[in-house]
Amino acid sequence: MALLQISEPGESNAPHQHRLAVGIDLGTTNSLVATVRSGEALCLPDEQGRKLLPSVVHFGETEVLVGYEAQARQTSDPLNTVASVKRMMGRGQRDLKHFGDIALHHFVTSGDSGVPRIRTGGGDFSAVEISSEILKALAHRAADSLGGDLAGVVITVPAYFDDAQRQATRDAATLAGLNLFRLLSEPTAAAVAYGLDQDNDGLIAVYDLGGGTFDISILHLNKGVFEVLATGGDSSLGGDDMDHLLGDWIIRQAGFTDIDAGQARRILLAARAAKEALTKQESAEIRVEHESAWSGTIGRQEFDDLIQPLVRKTLSACRRALRDAGIGKADIGEVVMVGGSTRVPLVQSMVGDFFERKPMCDLDPDQVVALGAAIQADILAGNKPDSEMLLLDVLPLSLGIETMGGLSEKIIDRNTSIPVARAQEFTTFKDGQTAMSIHVVQGERELVSDCRSLAKFELRGFPPMVAGAARIRVTYQVDADGLLSVSAQETISGVAADIVVKPSYGLTDSEIESMLRASMDHAREDIEIRMLKEQQVEADRVLAAIDAAVARDGASLLSEAELTLIMRRRDELASAIESATADELKRLIKAVEDASETYVARRMNASVNKVLAGKKIDEVDVR
Amino acid sequence: MQSPDFSQNYFELFGLRPVFDLDLAGLHDAQRRLQASYHPDRFVGSTDQDKRLSVQMASHVNQAYETLRDPVKRSRYLLEINGARLPDDSETTSDTAFLMEQIELREELESCRHAEDALDRCDRIETRLTQRADELAGEFVDRFEAKAFEDALESSRKMQFIQRIQQHLSELQYELEEC
Question: Which among A390, A479, A598 has CB closest to B35?
Fold first, then answer.
């Protein structure tokens, strides 16, 4: 009940233990996990001292392998080995062509949400399930190396990720059994890692070219508060595309025909090796070994010519982001480089030329996002109560609703600060209409068919009225992770339908539940004990909060009758802690919360007034 | 779940005078100050009830901020809190001279798409639009202060027309820069 514990600036709440928290960069090509130890952020290595975990999962008939072991099977067993699964997150069957090398796989669609699954020797798996394997491997590494259970994690996502992609990422965390503190946008994490929050105030451009995504973000920094002014990019553009361009070049040079999955994989690996060599050398040798072997050499200039259109595409997105933020290139104070693909010399020089300044690339561009996420996780875990850092985010893509004629009407515009809620009224167009279908879309285009469909549902059972008389109030709520929920209500009759929105390409709750059940090794009693423990901890926290609040201002904000009621509920809870079941405790906690609802609201108002009390008189004076 | 009772209007929420000519930097400062207290990141370890309250509070602050930041939304909101009636279905003006001017501006915009000096032309239209927006804002303030709310609403509608053309212009400039 922390709203009851609003503390004054510089005054911290009760001291507490250090809680283990990590930041996870769930990348297209590689993933990392980092934590803050003795005040310093560092990436946690595996037993062999390797920090990167290739985002590759192999599904054998009996076992699941993640990382290097899975990568080693990419060539010999491509159909049962999945790489770049991030491109599939929150995506449906019709997006298959955008999946890149994932499209080599055999897809099946099953389950009530129609999520595409990859068929492997070990079964059919969705992107959420595959990603959760990567998350589990990283969480396992972290728990081993930190020696305890994780209190929570921060997982990074491209700033440009839409609602379906964010939902899918959150679902993967749930499935991996992780307590997700927050989804953090990758560019913001990078700026945090560079400690730019301790620098002077100003504008920062974060250029993030990873394996499979490109993001450009314009951040505004002011007194430790990061704010994303604008984001842009392309969620299917990255270093993998360079590999493909070079792969195509190899195929042309070698005159390969009839390329099977294994051969395609070998060509891509050879291309990637050459690309990496060219970051340090002026030319690189390429070898494709197998029955149809080929070897050749490529010079840096030739490679630059191949990838130049791709880099130019990223600069267009930079221009757009600057325009969205309403600023010019000259206003940018720092340019931060993120993602392994920014090691490519042409990328560094073209970005440098574009922004007319030398980009920052002191930190390892592969690690920088995970390091920033770790710093945020440490703060959210409550390990740095004095930190003033606050990351304010914006909605990356507009949210709209389908109206007559297949047009999208924007409810919340992109680049609106989140969390945010907005309601809009709609009406019926036919006499006697008693139901309305609501189609939630995301994107900037006017036609619904050009936007991404997030959810469709119906509000049913309001009384028949003449056309145009019903008032249907549709409310969109976006939380701090950028995740959307929608509700609809007919306001004249009061017929309300609470509708929980699940993205069309996400998983339904029942699917998540059954997956969770399938992956649960715990016996039923274990779970019940855990639930009871959780409720007991919760009850203790509620009691402590209410006691502290009442001691401070209970007398001034509550009438005697109100105070008596709250204290009665409090005592009921206190006396039941040791003996009650989890469900009973939950009910008693709820009773305390219900009884103190008005109190909480009053304290909040009192506190708002206090926040604004520092304003000069003439600013609040009405003219 | 009842949300906190926020009887204050958006200007009061931010501690600002309810005027059209707003100090935008001050608005931004106030928004950040409130977010620093109520953003969900401050309530990660709290109860579900507090988390919900914090999302509601932070959403409320952002909604207020988005409304006051945008000149058209701000003008309508000023009218609303002063008790003016805002019909939501008649978003058009009956000023035919103004409408003609809008049609001309749009045609000019379309014609410069294929022109040799397209970007220069865009710049000239941009200057003109900014000027028109400023004039209309001034007109709004005069009418609003004279409590001629019907007329002020008309100015606000015209501001919205200009804003839409400005958005089209900005899209066009982006497209042209791409080529």
Answer: A390
* CA A92 remoteness from chain centre: 18
Query: Which chain A residues are closer than 8 Å to B41 by Cβ?
Result: 182, 379-380, 390-391, 480
Determine contact: B167 vs chain A, CB below 8 A.
Answer: no
CATH of domain A524-612: 1.20.1270.10
Residue ranges of chain A assigned to CATH 3.30.420.40: 18-187+369-385
Where, residue-wise, is CATH 1.20.1270.10 in chain A? 524-612
- Cβ–Cβ contact B5 with A under 8 A: yes
**Predicted ipTM of the assembly:** 0.79
Is A622 part of the contact surface with chain B (CB cutoff 8 Å)? yes
Nearest to A352 by CA among A322, A383, A329: A329
Q: Indicate the residue of B1, B32, B177 with minimum beta-carbon distance to A222.
A: B32
Asked if B50 reaches chain A (Cβ–Cβ under 8 Å), the answer is yes
- A18-187+369-385: CATH architecture: 2-Layer Sandwich (3.30)
Domain A399-510 has CATH 3.40.50.150: no
Q: Is the pLDDT of residue A3 over 60?
A: no
pLDDT tens-digit map of B81-115: 998 877 764 566 778 888 888 888 888 888 888 88
A158: tokens are 């491209």
CATH architecture of B96-178: Up-down Bundle (1.20)
A112 or A214, which is more confident:
A214
pLDDT in tens, A389-445: 788 877 877 899 998 778 888 899 877 888 999 988 888 878 888 888 888 888 877
Taking the Cβ of residue B13 and every Cβ of chain A, the question of whether any pair is shorter than 8 Å is answered with yes
Q: What is the pLDDT of residues B18-27, one digit of tens each?
A: 999 999 889 9
Return the top range by mean pLDDT from A63-67, A293-297, B102-106. A63-67
Nearest to B41 among A380, A621, A622 (CB): A380
Contact across the interface for A420 and B5, Cβ inside 8 Å: no
Residues of chain B positioned with their CB less than 8 A from the CB of A2: 42-43, 45-47, 50
User: For the stretch A553-577, what's the b/e string if a residue is b when 16 or more beta carbons lie within 10 angstroms of its beta carbon?
Assistant: ebeebbeeebeeebbebbeebbebe
Angstrom distance (rounded) from CA A208 to CA A214: 6
Stretch 455-494 of chain A: residues touching chain B, C-beta under 8 Å: 477-480
> Exposure string (b/e) for A182-210, b if CB count within 10 Å is 16 or more?
bbbbbbbbbbbbbebbeeeeebbbbbbbb
